[in-house]
């Protein structure tokens, strides 16, 4: 009897590259922690920790853009429906760009509210403000990248998400070291590095999506009309995922908020611990991505046997 079934192999074929590429995300956090931690005061690391938590809380509430896009795309892919594939890309992308533009435009009052909730040392909060004023300029690109990642996963183009995550995060790391250590831009340098990397990743992602659209026979006319259709279904699906994300982010956010009120040293230590914790979370997410893509494909193809095989393979792993 074979050690791995065909369903197991199919899952690992998509999961392995995603696990390794996902690990580059917390690696970026480790580099941020190491670079900012070498500055002459813990308030810098504390400020970045508060800023990163506020960013994670806000952006991860919108993680439904990635999750729902993967599911809807995988179903369209399984059903071999190019019009539905186009709709699964365009509708969430418009939603992401709209939400991102709104965050960027209204970032100052949102930052004021976030820092008021966090509380703590004025010095730490000032560094967090400097970080966020620049970091949230990347909101349109960051949210659009979630959609592109989800869509590329849904069509099971395993290499594309790997390239997106690895290239984007390596660029971010290089810019981080250069701007913070080389140009002495402190927390603003860390934020600017991420902004540049996010927009560069968006450009690469759009080029990859363009390639897939051609391969799948999706024309420009399909894309122009893809914004129409059942937007309500997308919003209803996203509502439930957003509630799940809210509860999860409240747990993680509480660690930073409570740490900030105990002083700059405590929040700096918590920043290191949270970065280490995310390694496991992001690695496991790589496998979750693969299960989403394969189960969505089986559901779209109305293949109950394949869907059951995916479920059994996921449980075995």
What is the strand and helix layout of this fold?
Blueprint: H1 6-22, H2 24-37, H3 42-61, H4 64-78, H5 82-105, H6 107-118, H7 122-135, H8 139-154, H9 159-182, H10 186-215, H11 220-225, H12 231-260, H13 264-300, H14 304-316
Helix pairs in contact: 1-9, 1-13, 2-3, 2-9, 2-13, 3-7, 3-12, 3-13, 4-5, 4-8, 4-12, 4-13, 5-8, 6-7, 7-10, 8-10, 9-10, 12-13, 13-14
Report on this structure:
It comes from Escherichia coli DORA_A_5_14_21. It is found in: Membrane. GO terms for molecular function: antiporter activity; xenobiotic transmembrane transporter activity. The chain crosses the membrane at residues 12-31, 43-65, 85-106, 134-155, 162-181, 187-209, 241-260, 266-284. There is one protein chain. The protein is 86% helix and 0% strand. The protein is built from 14 helices and no strands.
């Amino acid at each position: 009897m074979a050690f791995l079934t065909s369903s197991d192999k199919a899952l690992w074929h998509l999961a392995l590259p995603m696990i390794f590429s996902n690990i580059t995300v917390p690696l970026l956090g480790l580099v941020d922690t190491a670079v900012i931690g070498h500055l002459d005061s813990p308030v810098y690391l504390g400020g970045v920790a508060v800023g990163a938590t506020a960013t994670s809380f806000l952006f991860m509430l919108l993680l439904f853009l990635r999750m729902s896009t993967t599911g809807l795309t995988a179903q369209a892919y399984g059903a071999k429906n190019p019009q539905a594939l186009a709709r699964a890309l365009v509708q969430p992308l418009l939603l992401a760009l709209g939400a991102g533009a709104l965050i960027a435009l209204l970032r100052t009052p949102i930052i004021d509210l976030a820092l008021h909730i966090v509380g703590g040392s004025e010095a730490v909060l000032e560094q967090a403000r400097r970080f966020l004023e620049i970091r949230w300029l990347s909101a349109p690109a960051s949210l659009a990248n979630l959609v592109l990642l989800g869509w590329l996963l849904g069509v099971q183009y395993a290499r594309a998400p790997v390239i997106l995550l690895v290239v984007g995060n390596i660029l971010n790391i290089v810019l981080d070291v250069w701007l913070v250590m080389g140009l002495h831009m402190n927390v603003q340098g860390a934020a600017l590095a991420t902004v540049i990397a996010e927009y560069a990743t968006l450009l690469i992602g759009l080029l990859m999506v363009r390639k897939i659209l051609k391969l799948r026979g999706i024309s420009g006319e399909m894309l122009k009309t893809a914004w129409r259709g059942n937007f309500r279904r997308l919003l209803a699906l996203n509502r439930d995922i957003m509630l799940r994300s809210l509860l999860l982010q409240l747990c993680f956010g509480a660690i930073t908020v409570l740490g900030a009120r105990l002083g700059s040293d405590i929040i700096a230590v918590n920043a290191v611990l949270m970065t280490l914790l995310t390694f496991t979370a992001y690695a496991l997410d790589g496998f979750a991505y693969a299960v989403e893509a394969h189960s969505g494909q089986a559901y779209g193809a109305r293949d109950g046997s394949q869907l059951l095989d995916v479920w059994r393979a996921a449980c075995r792993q």
